Amino acid sequence: MTDQSVCTTCPYCGVGCGVLASPDGTIAGDLAHPANLGRLCSKGSALGETLDLEGRLLAPQIGNRRAGWDEALDLVANRFRAAAETHGPDSVAFYVSGQLLTEDYYVANKLIKGFIGTANIDTNSRLCMASSVAGHKRAFGTDTVPGQYTDFETAELVVLVGSNLAWCHPVLFQRLQAAKAVRPELKVVVIDPRRTATSQLADLHLGLRPDGDAVLFNLLLTELVRRDLVDRRYVAEAVSGFDAAVAEAERAEAAQTGLDSFELAQFLDLWCRTEKVVTLYSQGVNQSACGTDKVNAILNCHLATGRIGRPGMGPFSMTGQPNAMGGREVGGLANMLTCHLDLENAAHRDAVQQMWSAPTMADKPGLKAVELFDACARGEIKALWIMSTNPVVSLPDADAVAAAIRAVPFTVMTDIMADTDTGRCVDVLLPATGWGEKSGTVTNSERCISRQRRFLPTPGEARADWNILADVGRRMGWPEAFDYRSEAEVFREFARLSTLGHTFGKDFDISGLADLTDAEYDALPPTVWPVPTEGPSGGRFFADGGFYHPDGKAKMLPIAAPASEAPNTARPVRLNTGRVRDQWHTMTRTGKAPRLGAHMAEPYLEIHPGDAAAAGLSDADLAKVSSAHGSAILRVMITDRSQQGSVFVPMHWTDIVSSTGRINAVVAPTTDPVSGQPASKGTAVALEQVAAH
Ligand code: SF4
């Protein structure tokens, strides 16, 4: 590495790897970072190829003309204030991103909930982990990830449910691979309707029927009861709802999983007779109309056996984005407050309002992502601010999302790129600093807070998101509340606020970091929360109970099997969307690195030979995939990786980089009724050939 190297954190997935980065684009894994211990994946190691300024937004724009910051920010402040005064605070909305740093997220949440007075702030993290958050809160009483990455290495059995870890969280997969190489007795089970790169590591791959997860874990719960493997002491002392959960689980039928009886028996036997079990789950669980129920069906099994919070065991939710967890901590979602406090609890709201010296407080949940853009389409939102995300590509029913944004009288977007699918729909574009140019903190999937540090000069007139938001807050009339000079000041205020977590008996507390000097903040090493002012820091939760429901117990929930869908002859195939190994989100950064493009050069339709034959498709044909919402044209890839009746399409390609159409224009805007997370893996589609190869 060069003398100018800085320790920072990768801006892509929720593993949160430490990176040594230099202004000349030299990149290496940080040996000292606990998430990756020096490893990087293909995306992380290509970061140096994505740092050029081509395509960057370098100055504010109003319409198609360049504007000064004063003019642009006065316009934003005036239009947001006017909308709130004329139509009420709920006519204003922010749609933010797990790409934001915690400091950005904190200021956005404070501005809209405490000063504008609405909870209409939601985030693209709604698309990746909302069902896990809802499941955690139902079971534990708060949104707590109980374990750590080292648990994967000390477990005897790792069960990966709905997770293509090898492509989506590659460094954690490398750690699991390395552990299995050293300890071949470590068993890996992959539960996924698709046979993915991850299943190559599996001792057992269960090609479950889509959405069969809750039934499978209900069967496991009854098997644990049948074998008398329930930890009766733990359940008696630390868990409620056991009998009702088991009674409902007994209604599960093995046929609903779509597994053959031998495979099913192997899985049940392995889980039952192995004490050190980690069950990791990701988007295949969360992105479902019954995602929260799937999460709770998994948590039920760990709670019934007390296999939680101890080394080498526990349920583990992987977050998709680099700071999805930070967004949860600051309360940057429509149904959350801050510091894991409850928006609908008057005492919690009053305490936060007092600490913020805020003139008002949102007192009811705001609109979740899909609802928010529906409200835009109905004309209920008069001013909308989108930050660091591209909903016209990433949200379901994406054409309707574009129309909804255009229907809002005033729209503003903060982004690093000048031309995005969403940017084309808004009135004002504000240039943000990007990775390497900005500074702050992110929290990864194991609750580890890491610094992102600057190592590049600020391009053009770009500014940090927290700085732009604070400036708008001052211009809207709250100069003292938003008088921040640095990201360190924002962080210290947030850390001070987190004493409320402790006061109200919640898990999130980083008050021990509230007095960091600027130099200490800059030098902050990776730090797992909680970090209270007094008492132990970091570690695991729940080994001896200590849950956050009023009775101090965890709750097991009765989980019913999802209603089975009637066959649809017009649209006979189920569309499953997801990621490819070498692209990230809508490709604004990874699309710049030629070697990343070499892995998958274009979007494709992965289809089983039986479905291809039924639709009259051959390999490399162009096929039209259509639903009730829209269509896309894709190159056919025939393979038995996807099971019959289900096709897979990656979600990254945009109208700007590909002329085939965004796949999310096809995806139905169905959501989980508890979490509001879109069900991105179950839209009924029709297939037709548009061009033979
Ligand atoms: Fe970045 Fe995730 Fe790869 Fe680590 S695993 S280098 S955080 S993309």
TrEMBL record:
Keyword match 4Fe-4S: yes
Residues of the 4Fe-4S Mo/W bis-MGD-type domain: 3-53
GO molecular function, one term: molybdopterin cofactor binding
Required cofactor(s): Mo-bis(molybdopterin guanine dinucleotide); [4Fe-4S] cluster
An annotated GO cellular component: membrane
The EC number(s) this enzyme carries: 1.7.99.4
Keyword annotations: 4Fe-4S, Iron, Iron-sulfur, Metal-binding, Molybdenum, Nitrate assimilation, Oxidoreductase
Keyword Coiled coil: no
GO biological process assignments: cellular respiration; nitrate assimilation
Family: Belongs to the prokaryotic molybdopterin-containing oxidoreductase family. NasA/NapA/NarB subfamily.
Name of the protein in its database record: Nitrate reductase
